[in-house]
Hints:
By secondary structure, this protein is of the alpha+beta class. The protein has 3 domains: 5-56, Alpha-Beta Plaits; 71-218, Ribosomal Protein S5, domain 2; 224-266 and 277-324, Alpha-Beta Plaits (2-Layer Sandwich). The mean pLDDT is 84. Strands 3, 8, 9, 10 and 11 form a 5-stranded antiparallel β-sheet that branches. A 4-stranded mixed β-sheet has the order 4-5-7-6. The protein has a two-stranded antiparallel ribbon with strand order 1-2. It has helices at 7-20, 42-54, 127-143, 167-170, 190-193, 196-214, 241-252, 295-303, 321-331, and strands spanning 25-29, 34-38, 70-73, 80-90, 93-105, 116-118, 155-165, 220-236, 256-264, 277-288, 308-318. Strand 4 and strand 5 (93-105) form a beta hairpin.
Amino acid sequence: PGSRSEINSLERALFCMQREDPSFHAKFVKETGQWTISGMGDLHLDVIISRLRREYKVNVRMGPLLIAYKECPVEDALSSSGWSCAVGSVIGYEKAIGIGVILRPKTIHPLHKPQVIFDRRGDCNIVRVRHAVTEACFSALEISGPILRSPIMGLDVHIHSIVCGRPEQISNGLEYVDGFSQLTLDKLSNAQIASSSLLALLKTCCINSVKDALAKMPKWHLMEPMMEIELQLPAKKGYDSELSTFLHDLTNRRAEIISVDNADIDERYQGENACGIEKYHCIRAIAPLSELGNYSATVRRLSSGRAELSIKLANYHPVSSEHLTKLLEQLSWNYPGNT
């Protein structure tokens, strides 16, 4: 918003609009202090911004559209292990937490939603601990993509080990831990297990362990959302050049043309037959979402408002190395794996 005094008004407005419209989502990003909103396209978001200003009297500013990229390991990626240790005070006692993880790629399903799996040595029957570790793993994967800090898909996180003891017992690494069975969390008192400081140590340690494992996986794919486009354009006599104009525009947007069909006019255009409309063209294509900014406005302009446009998510596809280089240059982002 334009001022701090409008923050509460913005929060209430976004809450109300999400309740009214299930296709609209808003999320507050602590790192930037901004709200990220998502909907059914740029026109939908324009309506949302207009309502915030007109109905809720909130002077909001909207930045550029953000593409929801995802990142996944390459097809031949191997498992990667990570380890981290965190030291802190737990109800007056200095404790060290050590967590070992193994990331196992699911290369057959690159968009596999990550799961957190507790292996035998890392298993823990303490619900608070399991919840804290699982939450920390998902938090790490949400912002740790090595290319653009995008959410990570296509792998599972295995909790290999969780140990707790004095710093000198653990800080040198898991391979130097003696008496593993005596360093499990169930050896702690109920008061220590219930301590918020212990959960904070667990989360910090788990996040660093996952990041350590991710850093050992050098090759990644950046996956971009691909949209399925269906464009229906009335075919007027003497205006066949309009079809080639739309096809050329789609090609410039890195679209793959799936089909171009002609069909007889149906009841939607019966009232326009006097204008010479006998058929309509139906164009089906797949295009990257990043190339479709203001596309609905372009369609309205090129067709004088006579075309019907439908866009929906089709799948995610790896970004080509050529386009990745351009994207990184555009964002002034330095990715070590882009060579």
